[in-house]
Design a protein that fits this description.
This protein has about 350 residues and is an alpha/beta fold. Helix content is about 35%, strand content about 20%. α1 links the parallel β1 and β2. Bound molecules: nicotinamide-adenine-dinucleotide. The site of nicotinamide-adenine-dinucleotide has 30 residues, from α1, β2, α4, β5 and β10. Nicotinamide-adenine-dinucleotide binds next to α1, β2, α4, β5 and β10.
Length: about 350
């Protein structure tokens, strides 16, 4: 009998790509997804292979979780169902808390009610759990406070060292960087990690936590205005609009292509059993928002991006990660450059 995998949120951007990968590899795959209208605009098709069962259901709703587990007792669960709007989470905290935190506990309670313990739970967590992450000033490593509104109004974009000196961001690593969420979305993702760690330990089963950097690529919702700067910039560049770049353009991110993320999740599902793992998944290459904007503008023949000095409260200044532990642990390596990946995204939007 083939191994079975339940993917919550499996009709979304990452989930549908992972469903295809697992189905192609011979896994028996089921998806539980509420098909949220913010992600799935009206009249868009759900792109899942015919062999994948789609159970339309809400992870926050106990009877829905019970119904799915009555029909499908998976050997592994990949938990992706989530509200993912970072800025939106500041004004819709309860919605994020409900889906991300209560949705996780409801799923676990449903497993307990039906007496089923999967061999592994895989969680797509987020680089957001690190908040501003660790920075270095001289020889000192420190964790900056979230940037205040007043600091951003004054255009002091970079966090400063403890004595006000210049500082540089360090690559986050699950092995050494303390999570310090600075927004509600991030706090709920860290809560998911803690909840699943407690449950899996108590049930002697495995947990893989993959902290994903900014994922982009074909299949990303182009209508959800709350997520996905690469998709947004790609769309505007194709319309020949000049992109507005916030702060001084030097906000740093790691943009990782969807196929690389799917391969990492696939490796966690299919690889040798580890008791538990926490790894960072990115391209390993930090990119400024200005570089991203310039690349898309050049590809589309759009005007050069404009640095506008605007900002968003709650944005972190720098996000980059050390992927080497994941490379070793998962026997995986990202294969897509930003240039190749953004071109693939543009081609997908075109067609
Ligand atoms: N895309 C990224 O850059 C990124 C980065 C870090 C972490 N992640 C994490 O990866 C996971 C998947 O993200 P994505 O980019 O595919 O997002 P997505 O929004 O495309 O997919 C999420 C899916 O969850 C479903 N969903 C929402 N609420 C639900 C509920 N109550 N019950 C059942 N299903 C529900 C939605 O309908 C959607 O299909 C999320 O947990 C997210 O936090 C994503």
């Amino acid at each position: 009998m083939s191994e079975s995998v339940l993917i919550t949120g499996g009709a979304g951007f990452i989930g549908s790509a992972l469903s295809r990968r697992l189905a192609e590899a011979g896994y028996d795959v089921a998806v539980m997804d509420i098909l949220h209208p913010q992600v799935h605009a009206e009249n868009t098709t759900i792109d899942l292979p015919p062999s994948v069962r789609l159970y339309t259901g809400d992870v926050t709703h106990a009877p829905d979780c019970d119904a799915v587990l009555r029909l499908f007792k998976p050997s592994q669960i990949v938990h992706l169902a989530a509200e993912t709007g970072t800025a939106q989470s500041l004004t819709e905290a309860t919605r994020h808390g409900s889906v991300n935190v209560v949705g996780t506990t409801q799923l676990l309670d449903a497993l307990s009610r039906c007496g089923h313990v999967p061999d592994q739970v895989v969680l797509a967590s987020s680089r957001a759990v690190y908040g501003e992450g660790a920075w270095r000033a001289g020889d000192e490593v420190f964790y900056p406070h979230p940037r205040s509104h007043a600091q951003l109004v004054a255009g002091r974009w970079d966090p400063q060292g403890p004595s006000g000196e210049a500082a540089v961001p360090l690559a986050s690593s699950a092995m050494r960087t303390e999570p310090r969420p600075t927004n509600i979305y991030a706090a709920t993702k860290l809560a998911q990690e803690h909840i699943l760690a407690g449950w899996t330990a108590a049930h002697d089963t495995r947990l893989s936590v993959l902290r994903l950097q900014n994922v982009y690529g074909p299949g990303q919702s182009l209508t959800n205005s709350y997520t996905g700067i690469v998709a947004l910039f790609a769309r505007l560049s194709r319309q020949k609009q000049a992109l507005e770049v916030y702060e001084d353009g030097q906000i740093l991110r790691d943009f990782v292509y969807i196929d690389d993320v799917v391969e990492a999740l696939y490796a966690a599902v299919s690889g040798p059993a580890e008791p538990s793992r926490y790894v960072d998944i990115g391209s390993g290459v930090p990119t400024t928002i200005h570089q991203l904007a310039q690349q898309l503008a050049t590809s589309c023949g759009a005007p050069d991006p404009v640095v506008v000095g605007k900002f968003r409260d709650g944005d972190v200044r720098a996000a980059r990660c050390d992927i080497e532990p994941a490379v070793e642990d998962l026997n995986w390596r990202p294969a897509w450059s930003l240039e190749k990946g953004t071109q693939a995204l543009l081609d997908w939007i075109e067609n």
